Amino acid sequence: MKNKALNPASELNKDSKIWACLLHMSFNFAGGIHRYGGLRDTFEPQQAVWDDAINHMAANGVNMVLINVEDHILWESHPEISVKNAWTKDRLRKELDKIRALGIEPVPLLNFSATHDAWLKVYERMLSTDTYREVCRNIIREVIDVFGQPRFFHLGMDEETAQHQQHFDYVVIRNNDLWWSDFYFLIEEVMRGGARPWVWSDYYWHHQALFLKNMPKSVLQSNWYYQGEFDLSTMSDSRKQRVQTYLDLEAHGYDQMPTSSNDQGITTGIGNTVKFCSEHIDDSRLQGFLQTFWKPTIEEHRGLIMEGIELMGNAKKWYTRNL
After folding, report:
1. Domain 2-322: which topology?
2. pTM over 0.90
3. Domain range summary for the chain, segments of one domain joined by +
4. 274 touches 262 (CB < 8 A)
């Protein structure tokens, strides 16, 4: 495969790749989206589903869990953000220790996109102000402390467009230098804490020139595409753009964590993502893969969550056998 040819002098280390799943503590990144149930005000995950999902990840070879923390931790600096019954920092530390004991690396996600920051409560209406940045600084530092200086820190930053906020009561979109100013502030705080910034890559879909001009190579990229089709000659323009982004990011030398999901009932996404990206992204820049479910961690969605984890495990098995 092309991936091997790109590195003829090195032996592929199959154990070095990240096989990650996204598990939600908070689902309030979608708090502004009514079809996802609106803003939650009370801690939502059910312990049995949480525990079983983590154990299922370990059984399926998943070695990283990306945890959407946001307002489901009791913040010391800003308790006004936290939902009722939020986990204390000590409680979260115990959960992280249990995860590490299973050989899984926990990494935090706080989505700072203006489309997905309802979890910030009143501060979501203060973007780019000194107050907003002070709040962001404080909670980033708290999360880094709780996670014990994690290797990565996911900042979200996806879907900040008018289309994605067309049904919101309050609409705000940062453009041009203002978006980049807040973004640079956030990644600087993450790097100050010793973690590597990680973001969704769909900003590239709408602002290719600005992305290539301004996006640091130090920021890990997760382009996302949830379909199972990867033939560029037959797909629609919107899907083609998403797949092409993997190739463009590779051409410009960005490290990638390609992302899929089974939340739309598509079971071929992560497997075909692994196959396509393993062939087209240089091994030195392909950090691993991420599987998402986009559902709260509750009994209602147990089946879909467990299915997504198994699909990731199967994709890893294919990779191990074939590369």
Report:
1. TIM Barrel (3.20.20)
2. yes
3. 2-322
4. no
